[in-house]
Amino acid sequence: MKNTLLGSAYSSEDFRKRGHELIDSLADHLEQTTQGKSEKVLDWVLPKDEHQYWTEFLKNGDENALFKTIISRSIHVHHPKYIGHQVSPPAPITALTGLIGSLLNNGMAVYEMGKAATAMELIITDLLCKKLGYEPKAGGILTSGGTLANLTALLAARKAMLPNDIWNEGHSQKLGIMVSEQAHYCIDRAAKIMGLGEKGIIKIPTTSNFTMDTTALETSLAQAKKEGIEVFAIVGSAPSTATGMYDDLEAIAEFSKQNKLWFHVDGAHGGAAIFSAKYKNKLHGISEADSVVIDGHKMMMMPTITTALLFKNRAHSHATFSQKADYLLEQSTEEDWYNLAKRTFECTKSMMSLHWYTLLKTYGETIFDDFVTSLYDLGQGFAEIIRNHSSFELAVDPMSNIVCFRYVSTKLDTTSLNSINEKIRLAILEEGECYIVQTKLRGIHYLRTTIMNPYTTPAHLEMLLDKAEALATANLPAAKNS
Question: How far is CA 242 from the centre of its chain?
């Protein structure tokens, strides 16, 4: 190649050298984090300061230190004290499948652009359908995240349940979906993208345990009909993101049958429990769902971002995006499973099936059982620790690895306690030894943990409570003066 800059960019030897160095750095990082040898989960820096750092690095930073600097200044999800957001510490082998996918860059819009990954995707989605209890006519796709998967499912529901062709002809009628008030915000977002508006999102109240109050379904549906809203779908959470609580999927399935509604389950976080012999009972009724979403990057040890969208009847997957793109897609009379752009929101998408297939081939299904079960067990164990601690209370007895709790004191009112718990979370973030998040439930501020790392132990969780109590009683004036 005459252009020496391009030659350097595509140099196999340069790639080999940098690659070996990077793998060594990542392996060292993995050992330091999983074993808890590194002191912090993150070094907190204000956004403006981080922006300034990288602006200066682009001008004057050492190119040879770039990768190590990225690692050191990022949050470390493999650290056992990372118990914040629902992002998996990916199995290291999936970093290698990510490398393969990034370098081969098979776009997967049509079969010839990604034949290996396309065939793997069919194998994976068929396996997931079988685990759900679906019959052979089921099928699915992999797509870029739970938000896009939930939107696609609701588009499929609208296509299947309404007589007019809204996808091609538009609509003027008032349409709606039913969903728990605790459902993930992406359901609201999907409904609004579809033009349903605020009134088209019929929020079902929750019980004291933050699960959908299924006794309110009939009344809510009747009210929607009275307002001229045609409801075509109902969404169950498995579990809700804020609280980790599973809706009663069996009751929702029965209601959807009686009222001829599409039943969709947002199992982005907890759908992976289908692999857990101990906890799959939380998903009773999911086999009756018309569609289900499960994230690989939450409870299945994969890097962001990959999500399975599964249909009880695979024909719905093929009908959702019916349109013509002659330069890409052949028209065929048989089921065209291998040209994925016909069935996904994306045209080009990454070779995400490599992650799923490689984990299964290397470790078998048992790896998912071990992962989900160990983390849900830790959630139960942490709840027991909190119950036995006089300075803290649970928001609700957890059903998963999501545990919400707060510091309490009989000497303080709700407003003061909310302020203290907010300050506890901020102080923990700024200190960086642990990472937790927060949520507000019915006006009460809770500290929210999601135990995502099998290297987390009860001792780590007890240390977190000790730290939170110390911040409340010693470092925060409102607590000190109470």
Answer: 12
